[in-house]
Amino acid sequence: MAKPPRSRSLQATDQPLRSRPRKLRDPAQPNLPLDPLPERVEPCLALLKARPPKGPRWAFEIKWDGYRLAVHIEPKGVRIITRGGHDWTDRFPAIAKAAKKLDVATAILDGEAVVLDEQGRSDFGLLQQSLGDRSGKRISTEAIFMAFDLLYFDGHDLRTLEFTARRHLLEGLIKSRDDVIRLSEEIEADGDRLYFAACEHGLEGIIAKDRESPYRSGRRGDWQKIKCIQSDGFAIVGYEHSFVARAGIGSLLLGARHGRKLVYVGSVGTGFNERTAHELRAALDKLKVKKPPVEYSGRRKYIVWVKPTLVAEIEYRAWTHDGKLRQSSYKGLRDLEENAAIYEILAN
């Protein structure tokens, strides 16, 4: 049987056939359409709940106690942006250096900068200490970054993808468990059991995330936080002078917002060490005022009132029947650049 004749075009060359382009390609046009890299992304915030949600739709992680950050890996370098939109790249040089080593051209990682204690628990107080004196350079070489979401990856905006898909890409990007940038592990467990286990081990709480949700900025309920111990920001309205306590501070007097005014919500006398007490005293003595910024009916003999500028992170167990903090402990000062929020008492 005779073989079919070969095409003349194939006799002349072994290269594959190609059609002629309709017009010359613009060199500035990328081969594939890429999403613009966002300058900043408003973070997705977790909604406080009393109990964990139920059902297979929810993924669970440990709640980290640190500074919420977005690590931007860009063609020009790395930027570390805070929840409030400030550039803190210089404050976390180790995290920035580790981000440059990740095998990705462009990315935005969402996570938390933390310092771990000897038991592997995140400790906001240790993070504040690692950043140094408030009058210093505020640089931490001890902080690590616990990444829990991936918002942008190699030219593609991932925010419209469901959480499970974003998580899958994040797990492929961060493979080391001992590096400065680590993966916040998803824990396969019943929400209630995980919550009680977290509380037994002295953790702050857990986070529940809707596996099917896109990344939406704000507090919409796609992410939920269930806390073992309450922790919020309160204005320092004064301190009780002591002749025996460190730096002369017996306790800090605290205020919360109630409508348009501040109200007194009790005091805190634990959580200080020698260093933090002296830093507080130096800062507070620059803010002295004669008139109390809150209504106060207690003993005033040794009270020093201050302008309510500084916001303290306070850990507490509950509220008393008369609206005071119960079993409170000082954890550190919130950074004023981050628009430190003061706890707001909701009207009945």
TrEMBL record:
NCBIfam families: NHEJ_ligase_lig. Keywords: Ligase. GO terms for biological process: DNA recombination; DNA repair. Residues 1-37 are annotated as: Disordered. Belongs to the ATP-dependent DNA ligase family. InterPro entries: ATP-dep_DNA_ligase, DNA_ligase_ATP-dep_C, DNA_ligase_ATP-dep_cent, LigD_ligase_dom, NA-bd_OB-fold. Pfam families: DNA_ligase_A_C (PF04679), DNA_ligase_A_M (PF01068). Transmembrane segments: none annotated. It comes from Rhizobium etli 8C-3. Residues 136-269 form the ATP-dependent DNA ligase family profile domain. Its EC number is 6.5.1.1. This is DNA ligase (ATP). The keyword Electron transport does not apply. It catalyses: ATP + (deoxyribonucleotide)n-3'-hydroxyl + 5'-phospho-(deoxyribonucleotide)m = (deoxyribonucleotide)n+m + AMP + diphosphate. GO terms for molecular function: ATP binding; DNA ligase (ATP) activity. It comes from the Bacteria.
